[in-house]
What does this fold into?
Amino acid sequence: MKLKRSFFITCILLLAVMVTAVPAQAESQEKKSAMQAYVESVGPGWNLGNTFEASRDETSWGNPAVTQAFIGQLAEEGYKSIRIPVTWKHRMGDAPDYVIRQDFMARIQEIVDWSLAADLHVIINLHHDSNWVMNMAAEHDEVLARFNAAWTQIAGHFKNYPDSLMFESLNEPRFSDDWSKDSPEYFTMLDELNVSFHTIVRHSGGNNKQRPLVLSTLTAAPTQARLDALAATITKLKDDRLIATFHYYGYYAFSVNLGGSTTFDTTAREDLIQAFDRAYETFTAKGIPVIVGEFGLLGFDKSLSTVQHGEILKFFEYVTYYAHEKKMPLMLWDNGQHFDRRTFKWIDEELHQVMKQGWKGRSSNAETDSVYILKDAEIKDTAIPLNLNGNTFTALLNQEQVLVKGTDYELDGDHLILKAALLQKLVTQKYGINAVLTARFSAGADWRMDIIYYDTPSMISAQAPEGIYTIPVWFNGDSLATLEAVYTAGGNAGPNDWTPFKEYYKAFYPDYTTGEIKFTDEFWKEVKDGEVQLKLHFRSGAVIPYTITKTGTQIAGVSVEDAEKAAALAAEEADGQAVETLAASAEPSATATAASVDTAAEATQPEEGSNTLVTLLPLLALIVMAGAGIYWWRMRRR
It folds into this structure.
C-alpha cells in the first residue's frame, strides 16, 4: 500500500514539473521566434555607404548630403531597413572623456528620425573605427576607453528610441592587416569588446534594456572558426535579443575578376552556399537570428564592369534567393554606385529588377547574355541554355516586337535556339551590339541578350615608359574578359603571382573609347625585367598573344602580327645568305681569277659596320611601319 502511494505521489510531482516546465520552454521558443520574425521583417535592407563613415564629412567621398526626400524615396523603393555606417573618432574629443561633437550627434539623430518616420528599421554602428580598434593589442586600455566612451554616449542619446533602432557593436572588427589570420588573441579581444558593448547598452536605461543588438564575427567573415567564436560570446551573454551578422561579397576570385574566375560558375555558387549554410547551422538553426549586414561584389569598388554584366545578375539572383531560403535578410552595400542619390534613379535598372523580383521569388536567366557573330563567318542556329529556376519561358522580343516560335526561335527543353534566319536579319554588320533580344518568363525579371557583330581584335606594337605604356587595340566589337601574364623564362608575372590571370582594374583594364589596354602602376611594380608573354582573353572566346619586354622603366610591346612579319623577314634574309654561299662555292678557284676577284673586292669593300646596317634594315623598316600604324590609329580616333 505504501509502495502504491509513493508511486502515485511521484507521478503527481513529475506531472507538476512537466506542467510548469512546458510554459517556460514555450515562452523561450516564442521569444526566439519573435526575434527571428523581427529580423526577417528587416529585409530587404540598404547601406548608406561612403557617407558618415567618410574620413572628413558626409560629402567628402563624393555623395551629396542626405535629405529626407531621399530617405523617403528609399522606402518607396521597397526597402525595409537602412544601415547607417558611422565613423566616430574624428568627431570625438580627447581623453579621458572622448566627447562626441553635439552637432554631429544631432545630424545622426536627424537621419535616424527621418528613417524611422519612413517606417524603416535602422542600424547605427562604429564603422571605420575598426581602424583604431585594430591597435588593441598594443594600446589595450586606450582603445577600450575610447570604445566604451563612444557607446556610452550613443546608447545614452538614443536610449528612449523604439526597438526599430538597432545598435551594431563594430563593423568588420580586426586586429591586424592580415584579414585571413585567426588568432586566439583576436577572438579574446573581440569577445571583450562585445561583452563591454553589451554591458554598457543594457545598463544605460530607457528602452536599451531590450534593444536588439548586432554582433559581428571577426572581419565579418563567415568562416567556421569565426562563426564559432561569435556563437560562444552570444551563448555566454544569455540574451535572446542579440543578432549575429556577417558580410558576403562572393567567392573572392569571382568578386574581383582574378585567377580566370570570370563567371558565376559552380565554384562561385558553392562558396555562397557553404557560407550561408555555415551561418545557418551555427546560428539560425539554434534560435539566433542573422542579418547579412553587407553584400555585393568587391570589384564594384573599382568599376561596375569589373565582372561581366550577365554574371553579376546571376550572382545577385542566386544570393537573394539563397539568403531568403536561410531566413537571413540582406543589406545591399551601396556607396553611391547603385542608387543615384541625386536623381533617385537606379544606375543599373536590370540589376535593380533582379534584386526587386528576388524579394518575392526567383528570376530566370541564361548561360550567356551575349551572342557573338563573327564577321564573314557562316551564321548558324545558336542554342542558349536557360536557367529557368522554376519558371517557364513565355516570349522572346526584339525591342517591342514579339518574335515567332518556329520561325525566329525554337525551344528544346531548357535550351533557347535562335534561328539563323533571325540572326541574319538582326545583323547590321557594324561592330558592336546590333540588336537586343528580351526573354520573358512566367515570373521574375526579364533576361536581355545582346547580338554582337565582331571581328577578331587586333593589337599594335608600341613602346613607351611604363607609366604611360598602353597596348593600342582595334577591339572590333569584342570586349576583354581577362588577361594572363607569364615570363618567357618561366613563372607568373605581375601581382598575385599564384596565378597567371591578373586582376581586372587592379592590374589592367580596357578603354574602349580610346582603343587601348592600360596597365596600372601596381602591375609594373611587380613585373621584373625581361620578356613577358601576355594572353588576352576576349568575351567572344578569342585568345590573342602579345609580347612585352621590360627594361628598367621602358616597355616595348610586339603584336603577334608584327612578330610574324619580323620572323618572315629574318627567314628571307637567311635564305638569301644561303643562296649567296652556294653560288660562291660553285665559282672557279684559279689563281688569276681569285686575284682579280680579290682586287675587285678591295675596290668595292664596304665601310666597317655596313653588314650590321644591312641586317638591321628589315627591323628598322618594321619599327617605322609600326610607328606609322600607331600614328594612323590615333588620328582615326580624333
About this structure: The chain has a mean pLDDT of 88.
